[in-house]
Amino acid sequence: MKATRIGAVMVRDVVTADRGTPFKEVVRRLGDHRISGLPVIDEDDKVIGVVSETDLMLHQARTSEPDGTFSAWASRLRKLSRGVRRNAAKSRARTAGGVMSTPAVTVRADATVTEAARLMAERGIERLPVVDEEGRLAGIVTRRDLLQVFLRTDEEIERDVRQEVLVNTLWLAPQIIETTVEDGVVTLTGQLERRSDIPVALGMTSRMDGVVAVVDHLSYRIDDSHLRPAEQAALHGVADDWIRRL
């Protein structure tokens, strides 16, 4: 089973704004479409930023402050961090270009759902514009879209790890490695023939749909990390014979 790509789950009909879209129009589009953010694109459909509800709240917070209080606060901006000054500029913006967050965090359509989910978690964001090879907007994906993949059962994940990783990729008899799955966390236990097989097993398993994390309890019989390519090829031939005898 191949990992699901973002292109298969993204929404292609995207609500967008351009740099000059008025602030109130951005708010209206979010409300009309019941979304919490949208990408900002240029004349070539390339994503130049993203406007979120957090960005809009900065503007609301500024307009609700008494003029004197805000002026006193603004006079101290030179002493504050760049991030605070940037937020202050957003609070006074009148267009999408002024209030948007840049650079935009995007993802390619050929990325896996797992890769996109990790990116969202690392950056603390709820949506990702999907772009093509030239950075043009192709769609958008949200956390809700990605979470559908994690509804797979532990039994389905275990079956696919055994078949796709152990048998089809590493050419192992499935009983060599103990594979257990609990709440999407895969534990691999056992001894592989070569050390170089361990990152392959862990990497492929981690990229499979529905896998939350991978616990490594793998060891190896032969350390082939120091061998030259020709020596590794010869070793693989010996190891393949060992596997076939099982």
From TrEMBL:
Gene3D superfamilies: 3.30.1340.30, CBS-domain
SUPFAM superfamilies cross-referenced by the UniProt entry: CBS-domain pair
Residues in BON domain copies: 153-222
InterPro entries reported for this sequence: BON_dom, CBS_dom, CBS_dom_sf, Diverse_CBS-Domain, UCP036990_CBS_BON
Keywords of the record: CBS domain
CDD domains: CBS_pair_BON_assoc
Domain CBS: 10-69, 100-156
Keyword Chloroplast: no
PROSITE patterns xrefs: BON (PS50914), CBS (PS51371)
Top-level taxon in the UniProt lineage: Bacteria
Keyword Iron-sulfur: no
Pfam families noted in UniProt: BON, CBS
PANTHER family given in the database record: CBS DOMAIN-CONTAINING PROTEIN CBSX3, MITOCHONDRIAL, OS02G0818000 PROTEIN
UniProt name for this protein: CBS domain-containing protein
Species for this entry: Streptomyces olindensis
